[in-house]
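Data deposition worksheet. Section B asks for the primary sequence of the deposited chain exactly as it was used as input, without tags or linkers unless they were present during the calculation. Section C holds the resulting structure in token form. Section D is free text for depositor observations; keep each observation to a single sentence. Incomplete worksheets are returned to the depositor.
Section A, Depositor: J.P.
Section B:
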Amino acid sequence: MSAEGEQYGSSEEEDMYSDDGQEMEEDEQGEAPAAQAQPVLGPKEWVGLASMPAATQQALLNALGKLRGRNVNEMTVIFIGKQGVGKSSTVNTLLNERVAPSSPFQPENVRPLLAGRMAAGFTLNVLDTPGLLEGDSVSARGLMALRAALNGRKVDAFVFTDRLDTWRVDNADRAIFTALAENFGAELWERTILGFSHAQTTPTDGKPYEQFVAARVEQYRAAVRSTLGMKNLALPYVLIENGSRCKTNGDGEKVVNDKPWVTDMVSTMVDVASVGEGYEYDHSKAGKKLDPNNKHKIWILPLFLIQVFVLRPLLIGQIKRDVKKAESKAKGKK
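Section C:
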């Protein structure tokens, strides 16, 4: 794997996003400008492909060739999800190059990162985005970074990444599902693949591995569908294992449950990309929703006024009446 790291460095006048290896800058208010950045650099040759196992190389070229057969020469995929679930590591493994910082001792990127790679006349654009959780709340900065990545770009597939070995979908997860739909439209979820990292895990309840995976996938699908009220969402899934101890087959390919997972993931991306014209972000849909934690703040002032001018006088009046009643009782006893 190449040691070349790509950091997105651009001037303050540029958008938060620019092409190939450059992070996005924010404006002074911390928001992503609406205009599209001009490309600074084009995609690079996919050098990491040449050092993959021959079987993987051929399988990837065959998968991408399905799009070329439809006169499509480019595919764009964005990885989204919480922090620490393996988005950056998956980008590195997919390209077989170290383009995103993925060490647990390195801080997470605060801006989206793009790596565009060309091979056999086809361009694969892969974007890594910051985590969407800040404490127990949805990260407004993470949403703004994603908006910057989407501006002026057609996206063929999203990979919503979470861990296979975390057996829960909590309220924070559901808040992320909702925030993505509110800010970027439900269409985003129609082009989303569920990516489960840390897939080389042993089920703790003694279930066969296939049953364990099926239960986790259905749990996640049900949570997304019920949260969004979209019971017909397809939500295909892929299993991901970026660890150095990932098993390999006789051809040297990384496998999960005896299946080469990198080629399986790309094939699933191609299947999603082959449906329709891709997702294009509509800036007008975002409005003021980009701070998901602001949606109830409109009630703060009315509630304060009710407390001051209604509840407080009532409470003070009741206290005075209680005091007078107590004093009357005391006088009666005398």
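Section D:
The chain has two domains: 44-292, 297-333.
The chain has a mean pLDDT of 83.
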